[in-house]
Amino acid sequence: MTILSVGSCSGSGTGAGRPLPYGTAPQEYEGYELVWSDEFDSPGRPAAHWSYESGFVRNGELQWYRPENAEVRGGCLVITARAETVPNPWYDSLSTDWRKNRRRAEFTSACVTTSGSFSFRYGRLEVRARIPVAQGAWPAIWTLGQDVPWPDGGEVDVMEFYRRDGIRRGTVQPFQQRQRRFRTLYPAESGHRGQWWRA
């Protein structure tokens, strides 16, 4: 079996908001071999195995993705969303493609991926992360298929958080043998209960 480990800022306990101490090794598990990890211990741009999406990418989102909005600082991968106007170099007033018919973007952010760096079929993936929970944020950590492009190749959401109709929501999608299931999580104060779905 394989283990992939991505480190970032811790989000709870006595170390809340601070990275783990420099040099902290990923957890070891009997019967597993660590094949990749990043503890974000070199300031500046994320390491070479990370790549970046650029421009308007998916789902009609308002943000323009660009590498400048991602950096390693203080032992954390920091992705910053900014309210700023940037021109769309692919703008075409006659296009029906939403990526091209917008003259500019009013927001910027970053999307870092490991596409092309490695792949795995079975194993364990661990991530330590702090996420924004403000209205308009939609942080997600997901894996994609290798041979068929998204969305046809599917995805597994390791973590996804968003608000809809004022309700905070998140998804957890554990893999069950030969079944695809996911659970929508709601906060206790919303009055909703978790719902299991099977596809």
Description:
The protein has 199 residues and is mainly beta. It is 0% helix and 38% strand. The protein has no helices and 16 strands. The strands form five sheets. Strands 11, 12, 13, 14, 15 and 16 form a six-stranded antiparallel β-sheet that branches. The model is unreliable at 1-5, 10-16 and 174-199 (pLDDT under 50).
Q: Rounded to an integer, what's the Rg over CA atoms?
A: 18 Å
Low-confidence stretches: 1-5, 10-16, 174-199
Shape: globular
Mean pLDDT: 76
* Number of DSSP strand runs: 16
What's the helix count? Answer: 0
Strand portion: 35-45%
Biggest pleated-sheet summary: 6 strands, antiparallel
Distance between the termini: 26 Å
Q: What's the helix-strand series?
A: EEEEEEEEEEEEEEEE
Instruction: Find the structural class using helix and strand composition.
Output: mainly beta
Approximately how much helix is present in the residues?
A: under 10%
Brief digest:
This protein has about 200 residues and is mostly beta strands. The chain contains no helices and 16 strands.
Could you list some keywords that capture this structure?
16 strands; 199 residues; disordered C terminus; 6-stranded antiparallel sheet; mainly beta
Ordered list of secondary-structure elements with their pairings:
Elements: E1 2-6, E2 33-38, E3 51-52, E4 63-65, E5 70-73, E6 76-79, E7 82-87, E8 104-109, E9 112-113, E10 124-127, E11 140-144, E12 155-164, E13 167-172, E14 175-176, E15 179-185, E16 195-198
Parallel strand pairs: 1-2, 1-10, 4-8
Antiparallel strand pairs: 3-9, 5-6, 7-8, 11-12, 12-13, 13-15, 14-15, 15-16
